[in-house]
Amino acid sequence: VMSNKKIPSASPRTTWKLLKPHASPLKWLLALTALLSLAGAALQAVILVLIRPTFNLVLFPDGITKEELLAAGPTAENIGVGEHGSLETSFLDVGSWLAQWIDAGWAQDSRTMSLVLILLLLVFLTAGAALSAYGFNQLTNLVSLRMVVDLRLRVAAHLMNLSLHYHGKRKLGD
User: Fold this and answer.
1) What is the pTM of this model?
2) If DSSP codes are grouped into helix, strand and coil, which group holds residue 60?
3) Where would I find the beta strands (DSSP E) of 63-173?
4) How confident is the model at residue 127, as a pLDDT?
5) Distance between terminal CA atoms of the chain?
C-alpha cells in the first residue's frame, strides 16, 4: 500500500556534509575519477569531429558541387559537405606526405591515405575512450565500496562503544 507521505529530500550541501568524512580520505581517487570522466567525454567528442573530414575527403570529394548537394536536402548545408576547412586540408597534407613514404600501389592517392589516417585515429581514439570508461567504472566502484565499508565500520564501532545500560533499556529492533 502506497502512502501519500512526502519523502524529505536533502540538499546537495547537506549530503556533502554527511559524506565528507567518508570522502575526504579518497579525494585523490575522486579527482582521478572526474578526470577520467572528462577524458572519456572529450575522446568521444573528437571521434565525432572526424566525421566531417571523412565526408568531405572520401565520400563527397571536390567533383560534386555544393549546389548539387544543397538540392538533395537542407542537411547538406548543416554538415558542411563539399567545403574544405583547415582540418580537411591538414588530413590531405598528411595523407600526401604518407603516400610519398609508402611504396604501394593503393597508397599513391592522398585521399586514400587520408582515409587510412582517419581510420587509424578512430581506432586509437575509440580504444582510449573505452579505456577511459573502463577506468571510470572501476574507480567509481572502488570509491563507493570504500565509502560504504568506512561508514559500516564507523556505525559498528559507535554501537559497540555504547554502554550496556543503553542497550539494555532498548527494545528489540530499536
Assistant:
1) 0.63
2) coil
3) none
4) 95
5) 24
The helix/strand/coil state of 49 is helix
Distance of CA 82 to CAs 71, 149, 174, Å? 13, 58, 73
Dihedral (Cα; 106, 112, 113, 115), 10-degree rounding: -140
Beta strands in 17-86 (DSSP E): none
SS3 of the chain: helix, strand, coil, percent, to 5: 80, 0, 20
- Cα–Cα distance measured from residue 48 to residue 152, given in angstroms and rounded to the nearest whole number: 44
d(CA 135, CA 72): 44
46 and 126 in contact (C-beta within 8 Å)? no
Grid cell in block for residue 39? 577524458
- Which tens digits make up the pLDDT trace of 9-29? 788 888 888 888 888 888 999
pLDDT over 80 at 4, yes or no: no
Look up residue 17 and give its three cell numbers. Answer: 556534509
> Do 132 and 36 form a contact (C-beta atoms < 8 A)?
yes
Please give the grid coordinates belonging to residue 105: 600501389
Closest to 111 (Cα-Cα) out of 161, 154, 56, 71: 56
Backbone dihedral angles phi then psi of residue 84, each to the nearest 5 degrees: -100, 120
Cα separation, 84 vs 57, in Å, equals 8
